[in-house]
Amino acid sequence: MRKRAKGLFWGCMAAVFFAAGIRFVTNLTDPGYAYSKNREFVENSDVYDVLFFGNSHMANAVFPLELWDDYGMASYNLAGFGLRMPSVYWVVRHALSESEPELVVLDCHNVGAEEKTGRKEMLHAQMDHLPLSFDKIRMICDLVEDPGDRLEFVWNFAAYHDRWWDLDQADFEREVNIQKGAEIAVDVVTPDEMAERPVETVDVDSVGMEYLRRIVEECQSRDTEILLTYLPFPASEDEWAEALYVERIAREYRVPYVNFLDLQVVDLEVDCSDTNSHLNGSGGRKVTDYIGQYIHAHYEIADHRGDEAYADWDEDYRQYTEYKLGVMEQLETLDKYLMMLADPAFDCCIYVDGDAGIWQQNEIYMSLIDNIAGGKTEKLAQAVSQGEPYFLVVESVWGGGK
């Protein structure tokens, strides 16, 4: 009897050690993006009053810690790169099962797409951090059509086991996203020309539209406010069409909708990080400022500044500002550096040698300085045109040029 009990004990211990080893190896081989971006929400999901959803347009365009500094708003950006609206639906559903936000803000870019999912790695980046549950199984079955591909989403070691031989120090020292889920893009790229606004709205019948309706209904069933957006970028004719059709859906469900394509919030010449889609940090800060003002004016979202329960947010904001400074230290081109300086957190002094040919040869530099100073650069432009030096002092952004 004692031998049998002893054998059972060591058998159980072996099973525990085996399970722990499998868990360790699984976590180690995971690239860690999902862990980095969303860990803070997963570990403390009940403190957020506003949640942002969508694809990379939203991830690059709304910065929760800017909203904290301006309004004391506790928010998190759960948008994911490459996500289609069906994937976003499941991300929203999971988030609402873990938290009770006052407001959901959903960007509707690419809602006209027929595909349920984009590239598998993008889906992994948004799904791998979710604990295994009945809802996650439903999500996998809905989004991953080939049953043979589902195992790697249930147990991600099946997807990453071949990384074992490529591990480096970064895999043992996982960094955590300190931007509350957002990601600042630092490139400055001349955009494509935006298509003209269509005269008439056309029907857009797609799988994405079906899931957009499901997201709205999910929020309304929980008495959670929802705000729809279509963030700014050089939109094509098809993208204009889906932006205008979303307005119909918003009216149908009686929910507010902000179509940024109709607004002059950003300057695409200096605020784009690629030719046809995403905003850089300057554009994102302008969008964040607009959305912050809109939420502050239309919703009763608590200001948690000074609240002891949110004291660590001030430290988070300090680290976020240090992060931006660290990014700037690593930049090697003037255009990116000037773009990052267009930030209300920074005062700056800029010396311009008007006799240097760089200002005449590349107009983007003058546009970026104008962006920093909020358009108050008439004297600077005059000095450059005359080949004279100029010293510009900017106290905070959007209008401090002297």
Concise summary:
The protein is α/β, with parallel strands linked by helices.
Descriptive notes:
By secondary structure, this protein is of the alpha/beta class. Helix content is 50%, strand content 8%. It contains 19 helices and seven strands. The protein has helices at residues 2-29, 33-43, 56-59, 64-71, 85-98, 120-127, 134-143, 151-154, 157-160, 169-172, 207-221, 237-253, 268-271, 281-298, 311-330, 334-341, 358-361, 363-372, 378-385; strands at residues 50-53, 75-77, 103-107, 225-230, 257-259, 348-352, 390-394. It has a five-stranded parallel beta sheet, with helices on both faces. It has a two-stranded antiparallel sheet with strand order 6-7. Helix 12 links the parallel strand 4 and strand 5. Helix 4 (64-71) crosses helix 15 (311-330) and helix 5 packs antiparallel against helix 7 (134-143). The longest helix is centred in the N-terminal third of the chain and has 28 residues, at 2-29. It is globular, with a radius of gyration of 24 Å. The model is unreliable at 15-33 and 397-402 (pLDDT under 50).
List keywords for this structure.
alpha/beta, 5-stranded parallel sheet, two-stranded antiparallel ribbon, 50% helix, 402 residues, 8% strand
Quote the distance from N terminus to C terminus: 89 Å
Count up the helices. Answer: 19
- How much beta, percentage-wise? 5-15%
Structural class label = alpha/beta
How would the blueprint of this fold be written?
Elements: H1 2-29, H2 33-43, E1 50-53, H3 56-59, H4 64-71, E2 75-77, H5 85-98, E3 103-107, H6 120-127, H7 134-143, H8 151-154, H9 157-160, H10 169-172, H11 207-221, E4 225-230, H12 237-253, E5 257-259, H13 268-271, H14 281-298, H15 311-330, H16 334-341, E6 348-352, H17 358-361, H18 363-372, H19 378-385, E7 390-394
Parallel strand pairs: 1-2, 1-3, 3-4, 4-5
Antiparallel strand pairs: 6-7
Helix pairs in contact: 4-14, 4-15, 5-7, 5-11, 16-18
